[in-house]
Amino acid sequence: MVNTPSIDIDLPAKAPDLYTGEPPLTSALSTWKKVQSDLAYAIGANVHRSWTARLSVTSADARDVILTAPSRFIASKIRSDYFDTIERLWIKHDEVAPPRCVKLAGPINPQDENSAPIRPPAGRKIRREPRQMNTAIASTPIPSAPPSASAPATSVLTQHINTPKSITGQRFSFENFVVGPANQFAASAVKQVVHQERVIYNPVVIYGKNGSGKTHLLYALKNEMEKIDPLTRANFLSSEQFVRDFVQSLTGKQNDRTAVEHFKAALRNVDVLIIDDAHFIANKPASHEEFLQTLIAMISNETQVIVAMDRHPDELEKASPRLKSYLRSGLVCGIDDVDYNHRLLILDGFIANRQKQNPNNAPFSRPVREFLAARVKGTPRDLEGEFNRIVARADMTGVPITIELAEASLADTRFNESLRLTMERIQRIVCEEFGLNLNDMVSKRRAQAVARPRQVAMYLCKTLTRKSLPEIGRKFGGRDHTTVIHAVKRVNQLRAEDSDLDVRIKQLEHTLKPDHVGL
């Protein structure tokens, strides 16, 4: 057996009051068998098989017994959920009096200098005073000296390893996030996470259209938490990173699921987990299940999770009912479309930042500001893009920023009101209204969240353009003209029955300018 350093300071061995005469390790192994038998009953055979049965006795003396887990992730899970039961049962069965102290250790790759510490997960606590770099993570003391070079590569559970902070997304902050009626609820929920003393809502789900500001809020959250406490472990993952790392862990060359366990440990052994575009993860069967299990583990351990997606959890068509249930169990906040006054505030922020960068920039007049806010009826990202186009034209050509320049800049965009009405434009505007993408217009999906907007788009193509029924059907994925007829009849019926839908369609008709002749 290999001697493994314990998680506490080594104390001088003291002779027990009673001893069986067996070598300490032999006695410890015998006691551990009895403890395992009771564990299977106390926590359930399946749970015991998955977790505590994977512990092994690696060291023992008259005072201490060391149990070692095969991975840091397993050690952290046992420490948080089952260690109290292990200690209680050890005291019951140990033949040494007083009973020996049980300690827990987990292996670590000595070359992985950026590995996060294993420690008991806990509710998010804001530290009002900055932590000292040598402060112990857990309540047990840190060993006064590191293990010798000859010692096995193990992880002391209370050891702190400072991980470098990513500079990605540093430009995003709460200060430059413009709050209005469309996003006030979501912004307030995210700010509450920063200052909460304990986890209140878990998970926090932010959903809205692409470009509505979800990613800005998530990065602002991460940056603010690390500003308050530089040692905060806030793990920010895009859906692409999550899926890529998970797939790599499955296809790695390491044995005994070591790569998967390292992936889980890196994902879950944090103070806050932040995942952007989580709807992509939910749509892939393998990553879907890992996402669900991560969510369950983090909620169980009271570790805060914040996710962003482009639709409400109930509209994740490929998500299991269980995943939807867990996503809804915390706090779900939607970000709506920004109105005219909100767009003015956003533009004010762009203008102020531009002048701050260079006070000699050509002024952005109030009439142009109001023109742009009225014309660009899109997301904050759309507004930023059109603002940048206008100021770039002015800076590169040396002309003043006027309404005429703004008109010319918008001439080849969907925000040009002089565009002739086409079926492509109708499909695009309907997709924006209902939070879909253009592929949904031609797909075979029959879920109501997709089929209803598709019917509305067919209806608008029939009523606002001169296109024939077969032409419209072909534009919607090669559908038959009878499908278009059914869509028109159904939407007419729904407009009479559903006042909210009728209002939305009227707004779409106004946006699409029905007085223009369709191609």
Short note summarizing the structure:
The protein has helices at 24-42, 45-50, 72-81, 83-93, 184-195, 214-228, 239-251, 258-268, 278-282, 285-300, 321-328, 340-357, 366-375, 380-397, 403-410, 423-434, 438-442, 448-464, 469-475, 481-497, 499-511; strands at 56-60, 64-68, 101-107, 154-156, 204-208, 234-238, 272-276, 304-309, 331-335. With 519 residues, the protein is an alpha/beta fold. Helix 7 packs antiparallel against helix 8 (258-268), helix 14 (380-397) packs across helix 15 and helix 19 packs across helix 20 (481-497).
How is the topology of this model organized?
Blueprint: H1 24-42, H2 45-50, E1 56-60, E2 64-68, H3 72-81, H4 83-93, E3 101-107, E4 154-156, H5 184-195, E5 204-208, H6 214-228, E6 234-238, H7 239-251, H8 258-268, E7 272-276, H9 278-282, H10 285-300, E8 304-309, H11 321-328, E9 331-335, H12 340-357, H13 366-375, H14 380-397, H15 403-410, H16 423-434, H17 438-442, H18 448-464, H19 469-475, H20 481-497, H21 499-511
Parallel strand pairs: 2-3, 5-8, 5-9, 6-7, 7-8
Antiparallel strand pairs: 1-2, 3-4
The residue fraction in helices comes out at: 40-55%
Number of helices: 21
Largest sheet: 5 strands, parallel
Strand residues, percent: 5-15%
H/E series: HHEEHHEEHEHEHHEHHEHEHHHHHHHHHH
Oligomeric state of this protein: single chain
Strand order of the largest sheet: 6-7-8-5-9
Distance between the first and last residues' Cα: 81 Å
Query: What integer value in Å does the Rg equal?
Result: 30 Å
Molecular shape: elongated
Category from helices, strands and their pairing: alpha/beta
Q: Low-confidence stretches at least 5 residues in length (pLDDT < 50)?
A: 1-17, 108-166, 514-519
The counted number of beta strands is 9
Output mean pLDDT. 77
